[in-house]
Amino acid sequence: MSTTTEQQAAAPPQEIPKVAELGTTSGPLKSAAFFIGAYCKEYNEDFMLCKAESRDPGHCLKEGRRVTRCATDLITKMRENCLAQFEAHWGCLEQNNQQYYRCRTQERPLNTCMFEKLGLVKVIPGTPEGQKQIHEIENTTLKRQQK
Amino acid sequence: MSYRQDLPPAGGFESVKYKRNLPLRGPGALVILGGVSAVCAFGFWRIGSGNVERRELKRETTWARIHLVPLLLAEGDRAAYREGLRVAAIEAEIMRDVKGWVPRQDVYNNPRYRSPDGL
């Protein structure tokens, strides 16, 4: 087996359109997760329905490209509109074991900014009826131990 | 020989202290019981509200992951698809002399996809 054949085979075939991978690391992704969920709902659901049809990696390439493009679009918009708040929040997540409850002070400005600039709201599905969502409660029982 | 009779002191003996003289012993039993119950009740209430919050936090992290699953899965799928093509090309090259060989053919006669690491 010559190396040239391997290298030629490793390149994706021409008929598949290229898509730039998102390349965002876990901290920013966790920070943006609920906005990705809100902004890319249709594409995500479409993709997951396609995956429910077949788990074959080749089955949902088109839907997958849409998902990635949508997420890239959102991250770009987030960086254009709320860069300072976004970086503060994911920086905090990186310093705090990626736990949301330790970064509420950074999360609140990001949430308000995202709502004002892009109209995206963080909603946690399944919150009990008539109860405040956990990220909206100001004085929580569980707080970070170190101030 | 002169005698000196033993007599009470001038003004007489002081009166015998027969009244109860107990120092203060702290709050009563009912107060202590009530206080301990109140502290315990507050503690259990805090535990309860903390448990409710922990449940909410867990659902928050779960949903954060759920929102990211399509994105991560799509990226992994593209990589797996490319890898499959690469492996198929290598296999076809190796087995080019075997007649009727289909590269990456499933060992089962079933169209359902199985990931290669599951076999």
TrEMBL record, chain A:
<dbReference type="InterPro" id="IPR016680">
    <property type="entry name" value="NDUFA8"/>
</dbReference>
<keyword id="KW-0677">Repeat</keyword>
<comment type="function">
    <text>Accessory subunit of the mitochondrial membrane respiratory chain NADH dehydrogenase (Complex I), that is believed not to be involved in catalysis. Complex I functions in the transfer of electrons from NADH to the respiratory chain. The immediate electron acceptor for the enzyme is believed to be ubiquinone.</text>
</comment>
<dbReference type="GO" id="GO:0005743">
    <property type="term" value="C:mitochondrial inner membrane"/>
</dbReference>
<comment type="similarity">
    <text>Belongs to the complex I NDUFA8 subunit family.</text>
</comment>
<dbReference type="GO" id="GO:0006120">
    <property type="term" value="P:mitochondrial electron transport, NADH to ubiquinone"/>
</dbReference>
<keyword id="KW-0496">Mitochondrion</keyword>
<protein>
    <recommendedName>
        <fullName>NADH-ubiquinone oxidoreductase</fullName>
    </recommendedName>
</protein>
<keyword id="KW-0679">Respiratory chain</keyword>
<keyword id="KW-1015">Disulfide bond</keyword>
<keyword id="KW-0249">Electron transport</keyword>
<keyword id="KW-0813">Transport</keyword>
<keyword id="KW-0472">Membrane</keyword>
<keyword id="KW-0999">Mitochondrion inner membrane</keyword>
Automatic annotation (TrEMBL), chain B:
<dbReference type="Pfam" id="PF06212">
    <property type="entry name" value="GRIM-19"/>
</dbReference>
<keyword id="KW-0813">Transport</keyword>
<protein>
    <recommendedName>
        <fullName>NADH dehydrogenase [ubiquinone] 1 alpha subcomplex subunit 13</fullName>
    </recommendedName>
</protein>
<keyword id="KW-0472">Membrane</keyword>
<keyword id="KW-0812">Transmembrane</keyword>
<dbReference type="GO" id="GO:0005743">
    <property type="term" value="C:mitochondrial inner membrane"/>
</dbReference>
<dbReference type="InterPro" id="IPR009346">
    <property type="entry name" value="GRIM-19"/>
</dbReference>
<comment type="function">
    <text>Complex I functions in the transfer of electrons from NADH to the respiratory chain. Accessory subunit of the mitochondrial membrane respiratory chain NADH dehydrogenase (Complex I), that is believed not to be involved in catalysis.</text>
</comment>
<keyword id="KW-0496">Mitochondrion</keyword>
<feature type="transmembrane region" description="Helical">
    <location>
        <begin position="28"/>
        <end position="48"/>
    </location>
</feature>
<keyword id="KW-0679">Respiratory chain</keyword>
<comment type="similarity">
    <text>Belongs to the complex I NDUFA13 subunit family.</text>
</comment>
<dbReference type="GO" id="GO:0045271">
    <property type="term" value="C:respiratory chain complex I"/>
</dbReference>
<keyword id="KW-1133">Transmembrane helix</keyword>
<keyword id="KW-0999">Mitochondrion inner membrane</keyword>
<keyword id="KW-0249">Electron transport</keyword>
